[in-house]
Write a structure and sequence with these properties.
This protein is of the alpha/beta class. It has 13 helices and 20 strands. The strands form 4 sheets. An 11-stranded mixed β-sheet has the order 10-9-19-20-17-6-16-8-11-12-13, with helices on both faces. Helix 2 (56-64) runs antiparallel to helix 10 (272-278) and helix 3 (89-96) runs parallel beside helix 4. The protein starts with a helix and ends in an 8-residue tail after the last strand.
Length: 505
């Protein structure tokens, strides 16, 4: 598709705006919008900031006012044609009198799709597929959720250069630097759920909570002069060619920290609609369906490993508490059917690391036989917790239990992700040790890998990844690098499976 330079530039800006919604919109998508006036000047910009708040188009149109008439709207996801807690964006665009709408990605949700067709039916020129790959990338978590009916999975691990996540004696504090650990907490805080295995719980007794730091963690993680290599497609659009210095922006918008609404050119002051988009109503926005819906102490235990817990063996310890530390806190999350019994301070707001309703990310323990100790820190009241056990497990554990079918020697992890999706968990942050990570890979359920590598060597000790269903070199799980970034003295690598059927369509 031959894309005019102006369309590419304005859509790149819309993609950048969409990225500002990461960690606060779930279970809705992240969406950005740029509105031009009839003379091609920017009249309004906006992004969807939180579930239940105004959509990106509404914010941008409110900013543009009458200047939108006869103009063009660039939007990263097809305008919704559905009435939920907000009205259809297709009608808002028609009422504003825009003459042309440019879309990056069609909406895969049948309940909300149809905006493009409605606009065309009313004489509006519609162009779709402009910077589609970038639109897909900035919204990949929600698109996985909407298309596949399961939560999107980011697997994080930290290791030495020779791939060891712990020394031979099991110690792992600290492989990576404080800067890398702070970065991990920020990513945790932006996820809907943090998942670990029973091995991690028995070995490290982690909290599995997030302690959000400053929004500029990445920017402060390395000197401004340090280079960042962005590998593969970039969501920053045509203006982002060449390596960038380490700063607040990230090649992967999904991993960028929350940001305030960027300055807008041309338009009058934002007004009430935009103000609503950047500050929640008192008490936070409730989760729920609308429109486009769809994380130690070093405590160790020999455990009672057996064939029934292959995916969650006690050897999985160290990834959560040992490597990245556990500081009790709160993080971004959504109102979920499983999230009850815990409320954060009333001051929770957009971008502060606490999500809709002020609740922390849902903590999920994969525990096939229900062996989680009743006094485990993951069962405290710091955040809601769900313990996934086998449907035939005999346990006296008093916790919110989710019974799942068995898969091989562990649990059916796809069934877990579908159950989480039913609870409006769009994004999962997997920190469950080598065995659980290997099982997620074996079942084809890892969508993104975030690796923190320390400039250190161990030579022996626990590997970062356990058995992942690979018997010969031709069966390797091949990845493509998207970003290589210095984080303090360490390096952060972001990669994705080379093939992701069902996600990029």
């Amino acid at each position: 598709m031959d894309i005019p330079a102006q369309d590419a530039a304005h859509m790149a800006r819309a993609v950048e705006l969409a990225g500002h919604g990461h960690g606060t919109t779930s279970p809705n998508p992240v969406v950005g919008c740029v509105v031009l006036d009839a003379d091609g000047r920017v009249a309004g910009e906006g992004f969807h900031a939180y579930a239940g708040g105004p959509h990106a188009e509404v914010v941008a149109l409110a900013q543009a006012g009458e200047r939108a008439r006869g103009g063009t709207a660039y939007v990263t996801l097809e305008p919704c044609d559905h009435t939920g807690r907000t009205g259809p964006c297709s009608l808002a665009l028609l009422a504003a009198g825009v003459a042309r709408v440019v879309i990056a990605v069609p909406d895969p949700n049948p309940r909300a799709a149809g905006g493009a067709a409605r606009l065309r039916a009313h004489g509006v020129s519609v162009t779709s597929g402009v910077l589609g790959a970038e639109g897909e990338r900035v919204n990949e978590e929600w698109l996985t959720y909407a298309r596949l009916g399961r939560s999107h999975v980011t697997w994080k691990f930290a290791a030495t250069l020779d791939g060891r996540s712990a020394a031979e004696d099991g110690t792992s504090q600290w492989i990576t630097s404080p800067a890398a650990r702070a970065d991990v907490h920020r990513l945790r805080a932006a996820a809907d759920a943090i998942v670990a295995g029973i091995g991690t719980v028995l070995a490290d007794d982690p909290h599995l909570t997030a302690r959000p730091g400053p929004t500029s963690d990445i920017g402060s993680a390395a000197p401004a002069s340090a280079g960042r290599a962005s590998v593969g497609p970039s969501s920053a659009g045509p203006s982002s060619a060449g390596p960038a210095s380490v700063g607040p922006a990230t090649a992967d918008p999904a991993l960028a920290g929350p940001a305030s609404l960027p300055p807008t050119t041309g338009a009058a002051s934002v007004g009430a609609a935009t103000s609503a988009a950047v500050a929640r109503p008192a008490g936070g926005a409730a989760g729920g369906a609308e429109g486009r819906q769809g994380v130690g102490t070093g405590r160790r235990s020999g455990g009672d490993a057996g064939p029934g817990d292959s995916a969650t063996a006690p050897g999985d310890g160290g990834q959560s508490g040992g490597q990245d530390g556990e500081v009790a806190g709160t993080g971004v999350s959504r109102d979920s059917k499983a999230r009850v019994g815990w409320t954060a301070p009333a001051s929770a707001a957009v971008g502060d690391g606490r999500g809709a309703g002020g609740r922390g990310p849902l903590r999920v323990v994969v525990d096939t036989r229900g062996r989680t100790p009743q006094d485990a820190r993951v069962l405290d009241d710091s955040a809601p917790t769900l313990v996934a056990i086998a449907e035939d497990a005999d346990t006296e554990l008093k916790a919110d239990l989710l019974r799942l079918p068995r898969h091989g020697r562990g649990l059916d992890l796809e069934a877990l992700l579908k159950e989480l999706a039913a609870r409006e968990v769009v994004s999962v942050f997997l920190e469950g040790g080598p065995t659980l990570a290997g099982e997620f890979l074996r079942q084809g359920l890892v969508d993104r890998v975030v690796a923190y590598l320390a400039p250190a060597l161990l030579g022996s000790g626990r590997a970062a990844l356990g058995a992942a269903g690979v018997g010969t070199i031709g069966e390797m799980h091949r990845l493509t690098f998207d970003e290589i970034s210095p984080i303090g003295p360490d390096v952060r690598l972001i990669a994705r499976p080379a093939t992701q059927p069902g996600r990029e369509q």
